[in-house]
Design a protein that fits this description.
203 residues; alpha/beta; 7 helices; 47% helix; five-stranded parallel beta sheet
Length: 203
């Protein structure tokens, strides 16, 4: 009898541990999410992970972002990342490097669309994060890039952050000397921009 009770307690403990395992948000992005030239713990994804860990039930953030990542390289990496981390939510922040290199927008759209479809087929919820380019890229290309995110969010029915650096990019005090990456002090603002549309995906 005692042995049966011991096994019952043991099995209940296993069940409780499994139930308490945190769910995962996978962030797939470029240098804007990889804490470029700032301490990793100051980056917005690290700040997101700290916030998620305070939730009940608990969540965690996995940062799979790489500086220099393009939409094509992200597309190639995504299946292995999904298999490894088995997330419930994907935050997809790619396209800035495509834009800065002036790569064809139809190719960017195709790559982002493929990643969204891959995630949705795996039953993930998706947050698509857009980016804006400097004005010297011209209105046609800049408007086209903006439209890629908006149209994909609408057609694939995913949540959207239109511009990751909203309220940050035009403030020199919040940007690094390269004019492209936010300083550490700006990272809470970046997180706030992402958090608003991300939070409903966690429930």
């Amino acid at each position: 009898m005692r042995r049966c009770l011991w096994w019952l307690v043991f099995l209940c403990g296993i069940g409780s541990a499994q139930a308490a395992a945190p769910k995962t948000v996978l962030v797939l992005g470029d240098s804007l999410s990889a804490a470029h030239n700032i301490p990793v713990e100051a980056g917005w994804v690290h700040l997101l992970d700290a916030r998620l860990n305070q939730m009940v039930p608990k969540w965690t953030a996995i940062n799979a972002s790489i500086s220099g990542e393009t939409s094509l390289s992200g597309r190639n990496r995504l299946p292995a990342l999904l298999a490894k981390y088995r997330p419930e939510v994907l935050v997809l922040e790619l396209g800035a490097n495509d834009g800065l290199r002036g790569l064809p927008l139809p190719a960017l759209r195709d790559n982002l669309d493929a990643m969204i479809r891959t995630a949705q087929q795996a039953k993930l919820r998706v947050l698509l994060v857009g980016i804006e380019l400097p004005v010297n890229y011209g209105p046609r290309y800049r408007d086209g890039l903006r439209a890629v995110y908006a149209e994909l969010a609408q057609s694939r029915h995913v949540a959207l952050v239109p511009f990751l650096l909203e309220g940050v990019a035009l403030d020199p005090a919040l940007m690094q000397d390269d004019g492209l990456h936010p300083v550490a002090a700006a990272q809470p603002r970046v997180l706030a921009t992402v958090w608003k549309p991300l939070r409903p995906l966690l429930h």
